[in-house]
Amino acid sequence: MLRKTSGARLLLAAALLLPACTAQESFQNAENCAKVEVGMSQEQVRRIMGAPTGADTAADSRKTWSYLFGSATDTQPIRIQFGENGTVAAVTCAPQASGRERPTGN
């Protein structure tokens, strides 16, 4: 019985820590989004932002990377669009993604 109780406690502790990780990652994404500039290569963006949460490729081979920002109930994507030459063509940070405040609601 002791093992089951310990396992349940560990699982509960992990569940309680998960939202904190999401808030921290969201804050880092917001902070780093402000550092991405038009003209940067995909490798430069990856060094700043890390691996994207999502990636889409349009019919014309242009890529859009997305990263999450927000709380567990209200997420907004940060989008980085690459042009035909593979460099950043546009950066769309969530309106609140200034990196000055940690998101709330997690």
Task: Give a quick rundown of the structure.
The protein is α+β, with helices and mostly antiparallel strands and 106 residues long.
List the helices and strands and how they pair.
Blueprint: H1 2-33, H2 42-49, E1 54-57, E2 63-70, E3 75-82, E4 88-92
Antiparallel strand pairs: 1-2, 2-3, 3-4
Notes on the protein architecture:
InterPro entries: BamE-like, BamE_dom. Keywords: Membrane, Signal. It comes from Hymenobacter fastidiosus. The chain is of the alpha+beta class and about 110 residues long. The chain has one domain: Beta-lactamase Inhibitory Protein, Chain:B, domain 1 (2-Layer Sandwich). About 40% of the residues lie in helices and about 25% in strands. The chain has two helices and four strands; from the N terminus they run ααββββ. The chain has a four-stranded antiparallel beta sheet with strand order 1-2-3-4, with helices on one face. It is globular and about 35 Å long. The two termini are about 35 Å apart. About 15% of the residues are buried.
